[in-house]
Amino acid sequence: MALARGPEEQILSIIDQRLLVAPKRSLPSGAISNVFIDCHVFVQRDDCLREVLELFQDQIHVHELELDNPRRLPHAARDFLLNDDGNGSAHLSLYLEDDLVIDDRSFVEKQLWFLERSHHKAVLMPHRFERAPSHGQPRFFVDGPIDPSAFPDHHRPLEAAARGCFQGGPEIVFDLASNPHSGCFAVSQAQRRWIQQCGVADDGFVGPLETVATFTVLQHFPVLKPCWPQRDFLCLEHAHPSYLAYRNAF
After folding, report:
1. 194 part of a folded domain
2. Does 165 map to a domain?
3. CA 89 to CA 219: how far, in whole Å?
4. b or e along 167-190 (b: 16 or more beta carbons within 10 Å of the residue's beta carbon)?
5. What is the dihedral of CA 91, 174, 198, 146, to 10 degrees?
6. Are 225 and 177 in contact (CB under 8 A)?
7. 0.70 exceeded by the pTM?
8. Structural domain range at position 171
9. Is residue 175 part of a domain?
10. pLDDT digits (tens, 9 = 90+) for 115-173
C-alpha cells in the first residue's frame, strides 16, 4: 500500500498541532502523480491472522475461502486477478505472494514503462533478495539460475536481450531470465485479456506457488529481469528468509 499516492498529501504542524496541505510534489519526467491501489487479500478462513487483517480493514478487501486443499489458495487469488470484471480500468494487474516487500517508489512506473516499450509482448520480473544477518553481506539474492529445460520454447536464457533508458536515466540492460521466478507478476490490460483467451495452467512449473506466480505469464510471454550488474533497477524483498540456510550449506 506504500506505493499508493494521491493528488493531495498532508503535513503535521508540530508547533500548533494542525494539518497543513503539502506542496505539490516535484516529479521527474514520466513519473505518475497519482497511483490508486485496489488490494485484495486471499486467506483460508480458519488459517489467517485475523487481528492483523482487521488493522487494514479500510484499505484491503479480504476474501475468506474454505478450500479442501489450501495449497490452491494462490490459484484462487490469481484467477480473481485475471478475471475480475471490476479490474477493467486498471492499468496494471499485480500478483504478489504474501511475504514480499516493495520499497521502490517507482515500481509501478518501471513496470508500465517496460510493458509499453516491449509492446506488451514480454513481462518484467524483479530480482528477489533476503536480508542476511551479517552486516558484511546485507542482501542475499535467492533466484539464481535453474534448469532451463523447464521453460517453454519461447523463453531461452539470454544476456542483454533488451535495453532502454527509464525516465531519461542511464541505459538499463535486461536479460531473458535464467530464473524467471520472483514470487509475483505484473501484466497490462492487453496481456490480461490475452491470458484470459488462452487460459492458464494449474501446475507444471516446480510447485503450486511457482506455477501461479511465474508460469501464469511464462507460458505466454518471455520473462526478463535487469542484468545482474544493474539488479538495483528492480528489486523486492523476500521478507520470510527461508533461503538463508543455503548460505551455510556450501
Report:
1. yes
2. yes
3. 25
4. eeeeebbbbbbbbbbbbbbbbbbe
5. -130
6. yes
7. yes
8. 91-248
9. yes
10. 999 999 999 999 999 998 777 778 999 999 999 988 998 999 999 999 999 999 999 99
